[in-house]
């Protein structure tokens, strides 16, 4: 199939090329993000391969369909950015990569937690400039503490098991808890119990109307002031203004994030020459008790290889007229 790959980075290209070594599919690579303007690049192709911040709203889907696109393969698991009903009404198939490496994301959540708790981001800079003082670097033992998960799917369950390995008691809230979460021995509780009892909270639910700003001024007021909050899921789960206020008012000890609610206009580009163009994000990361990464939790060799092989299997299935294994259906 002729496939246009939006938001291409070198690592996407090398992994997709290596799985497509037979040359069954012809790729056009573009670093451009998908937008109404860049849909013109898709003309003459049958499939689009896009990433997490490439919007797929109704006008963009209509332009793609009018240009001959029939299949959209996402290089990500989350699909809150896709108007699935519009896609289906237009006869477009949209497939995601549901589980390329839940370990990659869970391990990154733990990396953020350990950095934040032991201040290794500050220590690294101090040591490099010859400052070996320790003031302000104290953390807590994770052993014996209570960790709370919001969402016990693939990533949440692995994160909980890693935290159990540190000796944490794990509480979890999920309206549809998985068998794996029950088998892991997490204490399944209401959301408010996760908020009020946890020393560490890690968010692992999808972004849905019901979960948008699940962390807001009133939920932040329920947390222990000593709590650490981690979000590797979707930026829209946290109301940024409210979390800045909580950090500044010492209602929250620290925040570790890989995602940010307005990240689409910011992440995956180098703004270092001009400075961070988003004043809200700049204010957030000015806090030393905030550790932020730019949506890199997925970025392991293993995950990239799995993403590439799932994308190619979707293209293969569609080209052969078979059902696409991970074609998305609207949520019930
Ligand atoms: P999953 O579908 O396996 O699990 C999600 C869980 O959330 C499910 O058990 C579901 O019942 C639960 N849930 C639904 N509504 C909820 C609510 N209101 N409150 C609490 N829980 C709720 O998904 P996953 O593979 O574990 O991924 C979790 C999220 O991680 C994804 O939605 C995606 O947004 C994000 N993600 C981020 C990255 C990254 O690079 N930062 C990579 C992959 C996935």
TrEMBL record:
GO molecular function terms attached to this record: D-lactate dehydrogenase (NAD+) activity; NAD binding
Keyword annotations from UniProtKB, A to Z: NAD, Oxidoreductase
InterPro entries: D-isomer_2_OHA_DH_cat_dom, D-isomer_DH_CS, D-isomer_DH_NAD-bd, D-LDH-like, NAD(P)-bd_dom_sf
D-isomer specific 2-hydroxyacid dehydrogenase NAD-binding domain residues: 110-297
Pfam family, one: 2-Hacid_dh
Keyword flag Oxidoreductase: yes
PANTHER family hit by this protein: 2-HYDROXYACID DEHYDROGENASE HOMOLOG 1-RELATED
Name by which UniProt lists this protein: 2-hydroxyacid dehydrogenase
Organism: Rariglobus hedericola
């Amino acid at each position: 199939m002729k496939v246009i790959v939006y938001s291409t980075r070198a690592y996407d290209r090398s992994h997709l090329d290596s799985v497509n070594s037979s040359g069954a599919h012809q790729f056009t690579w573009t670093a451009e993000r998908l937008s109404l303007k860049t849909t013109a690049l898709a003309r003459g192709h049958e499939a689009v391969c896009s990433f997490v911040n490439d919007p797929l709203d109704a006008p963009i889907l209509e332009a793609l369909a009018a240009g001959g696109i029939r299949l959209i393969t996402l290089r990500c698991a989350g699909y809150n950015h896709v108007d699935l009903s519009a896609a289906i009404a237009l006869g477009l198939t949209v497939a995601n990569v549901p589980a390329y490496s839940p370990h990659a994301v869970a391990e990154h959540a733990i990396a953020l937690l350990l950095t934040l708790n032991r201040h290794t981001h500050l220590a690294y800079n101090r040591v490099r400039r010859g400052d070996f003082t320790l003031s302000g670097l104290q953390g807590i033992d994770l052993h014996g503490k209570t960790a709370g998960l919001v969402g016990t799917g693939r990533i949440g369950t692995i994160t909980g098991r890693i935290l159990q390995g540190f000796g944490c008691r794990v509480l979890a809230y999920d309206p549809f808890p998985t068998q794996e979460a029950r088998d892991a021995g997490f204490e399944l509780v209401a959301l408010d119990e996760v908020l009020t009892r946890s020393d560490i909270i890690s968010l692992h639910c999808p972004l849905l109307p019901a979960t948008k700003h699940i962390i807001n001024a009133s939920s932040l007021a329920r947390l222990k002031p000593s709590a650490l909050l981690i979000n590797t899921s979707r930026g829209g789960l946290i109301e940024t203004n409210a979390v800045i206020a909580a950090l500044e008012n010492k209602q929250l000890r620290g925040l570790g994030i890989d995602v940010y609610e307005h990240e689409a206009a910011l992440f995956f580009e180098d703004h270092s020459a001009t400075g961070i163009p988003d004043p809200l994000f700049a204010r957030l990361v000015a806090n030393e008790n905030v550790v932020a990464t730019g949506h890199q939790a997925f970025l392991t060799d293993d995950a990239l290889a799995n993403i590439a092989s799932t994308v190619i299997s979707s293209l293969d299935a569609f080209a052969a007229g078979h059902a696409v294994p991970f074609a998305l259906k609207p949520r019930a």
